[in-house]
Write a sequence for this structure.
């Protein structure tokens, strides 16, 4: 792949919702694995009560505070490694969660890591994406714009994404539970909870 297709740091230095929309169709690359991003969730700053930074900086969420264009990875239920791409300005706790992807290359490795046939259920869920890429907490703070390691490359943009509420944020205020900050590629089977999504405006 052309190294010039790496998304630069300034791409991420914007509001998480803007970055989320522009990440749809982009490519996540690690070694021989290439995944097309099909579903994302924006966690914004500063009012978002679903944001992991809502109670301040901690050892667990340190990477979330920037700088942008780096990885924030956390462990969910002690099992699943969830990949977030840090956005906004340094010192702001904002990121985009990668919820689902479509495999482009490296299907044999993905299948081995996920223990099943290559079909949408294999990569529709953020823990599944982390497992397919072989990520663990050592990837926190990793720069996404440098060649090698985990990279994000330009893909085919999605003009009008589907939108709906984010998943698993019952602790947030009703305003933020219902905010349409989960975005997904239309007409793509590699998307989770599709029934909760509507055509965007």
């Amino acid at each position: 792949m052309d190294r010039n297709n790496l998304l630069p740091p300034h791409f991420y230095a914007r509001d998480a919702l803007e970055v989320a929309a522009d990440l749809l169709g982009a490519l996540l690359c690690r070694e021989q694995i290439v995944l097309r991003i099909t579903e994302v969730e924006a966690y914004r700053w500063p009012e978002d009560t679903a944001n992991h930074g809502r109670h301040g900086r901690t050892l667990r969420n340190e990477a979330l505070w920037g700088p942008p264009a780096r990885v924030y990875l956390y462990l969910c239920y002690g099992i699943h490694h969830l990949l977030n791409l840090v956005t906004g300005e340094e010192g702001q706790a904002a990121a985009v969660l990668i919820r689902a992807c479509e495999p482009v290359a490296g299907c044999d490795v993905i299948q081995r890591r996920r223990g099943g046939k290559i079909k949408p259920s294999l990569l529709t869920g953020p823990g599944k994406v982390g497992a397919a890429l072989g990520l663990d907490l050592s990837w926190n703070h990793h720069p996404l714009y440098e060649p090698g390691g985990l990279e994000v490359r330009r893909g085919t943009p999605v003009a009008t994404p589907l939108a709906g509420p984010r998943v698993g944020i019952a602790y947030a205020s009703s305003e933020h539970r219902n905010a349409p900050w989960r975005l997904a590629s239309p007409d793509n089977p590699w998307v989770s909870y599709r029934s909760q999504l509507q055509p965007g405006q």
